[in-house]
């Protein structure tokens, strides 16, 4: 399991207390056994707000990654960058075609994550789920019955097509890539929050993929570790 260290060259800024989008990066660090500093670990949300974005540069929202003089935000940008940098770039697809495919799939990850978060926070994105629990139920129901099934079909189709070509339960080519780890987190959070949808929809390949990534030694160790925050039942991946 990747251990946080004050000497680590990577610094991750993300809200404490739940996995969220910061978990994309934590899983990539875990898979590659890369030390990093989780800047807000052990802090409250209020303390994180006061600490801000580190160097004082303004970003729209967390997560933010600091690596030397690189200081970037937006989940897809950070994850692609980490795919290039971590463990000699072994998670970065080798061909341009596969790299573009990975970025396209990450666009889908961003889409399903955003739709899920907005369904559970449909009235006020800045308020907690519990402050709007009753009012959000129609939006959550729509997400579960209309939107999530479409996203699962998207991921199922991509996995099935790549499996036919490579014999591997992966999204891009025949080697694990950064986008596989990111899709895993999106699936993991939705499976936790909406298990009934996975039972109703044809998700054979998605379920096998999820199980395979979950059982990878470094991922498995991270998921069982005390440092890994748990899902909160306040929305997918949250």
UniProtKB/TrEMBL annotation:
<dbReference type="GO" id="GO:0004364">
    <property type="term" value="F:glutathione transferase activity"/>
</dbReference>
<dbReference type="InterPro" id="IPR010987">
    <property type="entry name" value="Glutathione-S-Trfase_C-like"/>
</dbReference>
<dbReference type="InterPro" id="IPR036282">
    <property type="entry name" value="Glutathione-S-Trfase_C_sf"/>
</dbReference>
<dbReference type="Pfam" id="PF14497">
    <property type="entry name" value="GST_C_3"/>
</dbReference>
<dbReference type="InterPro" id="IPR004046">
    <property type="entry name" value="GST_C"/>
</dbReference>
<dbReference type="GO" id="GO:0006749">
    <property type="term" value="P:glutathione metabolic process"/>
</dbReference>
<protein>
    <submittedName>
        <fullName>Glutathione S-transferase</fullName>
    </submittedName>
</protein>
<dbReference type="Pfam" id="PF02798">
    <property type="entry name" value="GST_N"/>
</dbReference>
<dbReference type="InterPro" id="IPR040079">
    <property type="entry name" value="Glutathione_S-Trfase"/>
</dbReference>
<dbReference type="InterPro" id="IPR050213">
    <property type="entry name" value="GST_superfamily"/>
</dbReference>
<dbReference type="InterPro" id="IPR036249">
    <property type="entry name" value="Thioredoxin-like_sf"/>
</dbReference>
<dbReference type="InterPro" id="IPR004045">
    <property type="entry name" value="Glutathione_S-Trfase_N"/>
</dbReference>
